[in-house]
Design brief:
Order of helices and strands: EEEHEE
Strand content: 5-15%
Helix content: under 10%
Shape: elongated
Largest sheet: 3 strands, antiparallel
Structural class: mainly beta
Number of helices: 1
Strand order of the largest sheet: 1-3-2
Radius of gyration: 17 Å
C-alpha cells in the first residue's frame, strides 16, 4: 500500500497534491502518506477507497440489536 512507497512526509511539508492519510506520529511530528492525490480528494487512490468504506458493522437489523464485526452489540 502507499505506506511502502517512500513518499511519506511530515504533514506540515505537504503541498496541495500530496495525500494526507495519517501514517505515524502526532502533532507537529505527524507523518502522512505523501503520494499523489486522487482528483477531488485529499487522499491518494488507495486511501480514498479506505476513507469511503462503509462502517464495519451492520446498519440494518431485524431484532433491534445491531451486531458489530467484533461481536459486540450496538443498540
Amino acid at each position: 500500500m502507499s505506506e511502502d512507497t517512500g513518499h511519506r512526509r511530515l504533514l506540515i511539508d505537504c503541498e496541495r497534491l500530496h495525500c494526507r492519510w495519517p501514517i505515524d506520529g502526532a502533532g507537529a511530528d505527524l507523518m502522512v502518506c505523501g503520494d499523489a492525490v486522487r482528483e477531488g480528494s485529499s487522499y491518494c487512490e488507495a486511501h480514498h477507497v479506505l476513507a469511503h468504506l462503509p462502517p464495519p458493522w451492520k446498519t440494518v437489523s431485524v431484532g433491534g440489536i445491531v451486531p458489530r464485526v467484533d461481536g459486540a452489540a450496538v443498540n
